[in-house]
Amino acid sequence: MIKRVRSWLNQEDSQQAHRISPDNIPHHVAIIMDGNGRWAKRRGMPRIVGHQNGMKAVKRAAIAADDLGIKILTMYAFSTENWKRPKDEVDFLMKLPQEFLAIELEELIQKNVQVRMMGHPEDLPQHTRDAMEEAVARTASNTGLVLNFALNYGSRKEITESIRALGKDIREGTLLPEDITEEMVGERLLSGDLPDPDLLIRTSGELRLSNFMLWQLAYSELWFTDIYWPEFTKEHLIEAVAEYQHRTRRYGGLS
Ligand code: FPP
To answer: Model pTM?
Structure first.
């Protein structure tokens, strides 16, 4: 109990310090978790140690997001381009969801978290797929934080597939090209019914999107930090949210 109160007080303190308003918390935050390899290299350790510590930062970020009242957290865990990495590293990355869920699934269930996966399961090793499918199934009716793992995800591929699906409807005569709307393209993306991210965070000082949610990020606020992903803490999330709350979102209009 004391621990709970203390953690609540710390949370209150840091929210106060950064003047986070509870009324303007981003609903959906997406994160490009970059810098695992460099974090490890800087310490003279193999890259996979960086990924292992990156996994710990995933848990910290999920707890912090939930504490702050963020409703959806999308984490870029593996891209359709990451298969180009050395086999050992890919194999290691493919074991992480399983390892993470073996340790955390029960707590995620208890905390009412809904786990989702956004990506192409068909190319994943069976053990990775099984772990994700189990987590998704066991948390499907949860109503708390949506923890959405982008796994074997690539935005150009998802946009191409959305267009292909619309093309099929046209060929079958159920759709006219002139009737295609932005909503129709959006609904057929892997993010499905999730609203677009309000805030995108990328760690490690790289300033690019790396084929991540290119359609959905059209009007998201972007926040970049030099810290490497394994160093990411609740304080960084608070900093990002504080900065977000200072932005004026105009969606191409006037404020
Ligand atoms: C990019 O950093 C990071 C990745 C390709 C992997 C991200 C995965 C995790 C953080 C763990 C995922 C955990 C779960 C539970 C799915 P990089 O290693 O390419 O960084 P570098 O540019 O410094 O080499």
So the answer is: 0.93
